[in-house]
Amino acid sequence: MRYTWLAALALLGAAPAAAQSAGELRAQLEETKAMLAQGEAAGMDASVLSTLRETLAMLEETIREMEAEEGAASPAPAAEEPLNAPYPVKPNLAATEACAGFTEQNYRSRALAAGSDVQLDTMCAQAFEYYAMYKRAIAQGYSEADANRTYDAHSKSALVANDFYANNRAD
Fold first, then answer.
1. For residue range 18-33, what is the model confidence (pLDDT) as tens digits?
2. The pTM is what?
3. SS3 category, 24
4. Mind giving me the DSSP string for 30-92?
5. Which of 2, 47, 58, 164 has the greatest number of CB atoms lying within 10 Å of its CB?
């Protein structure tokens, strides 16, 4: 099987964008290892093999980072879960048409899913992340002023996502 340089790069460019989890990235890592082995056996151009090796290293690093984040991140309280806050909990300003399909439970994987508007998905995920951080601050007993600093970041992030949706989204 003969790979061309452009075909290999096209495969590499498409693979990470479709990944949603460390497990899926691991599957892509194994596919890339197999592609490298086939390329070496077929005498593929050295620059393509070098690119494949670099991609393997990047995939391995991304997997390590994702697994570390998954292990270190304490989940925000679920939307249905009442917070015993000594002050009112503010609403999620990103739960709008702009971020349709995003929830407090799926925003991380949803942001990595292939979609029609990567920029908007990234903005929505950031707004949801700030809201999760806000709820975590409340659950961990932070003062209203401390929690509100995070909520302000959420508010600004949600405003950016909603404004982008209204004015610049991909159709």
1. 445 666 777 777 777 7
2. 0.52
3. helix
4. HHHHHHHHHHHHHT--HHHHHHHHHHHHHHHHHHHHHHHHHHHPPPPPPTTSPP--SSPPPP-
5. 164
Q: How far apart are CA 101 and CA 32, in angstroms?
A: 31
Greater confidence (154 vs 38) lies with 154
The span from the CA of 116 to the CA of 154, in Å, is 23
Residue-wise over 84-113: b if at least 16 C-beta within 10 A, else e? eeeeeeeebbbbeebbeebebeebbebbbe
Question: Left, alpha or beta for 141 (phi > 0: left; psi -120 to 50: alpha)?
Answer: left
> What is the SS3 assignment for 167?
helix
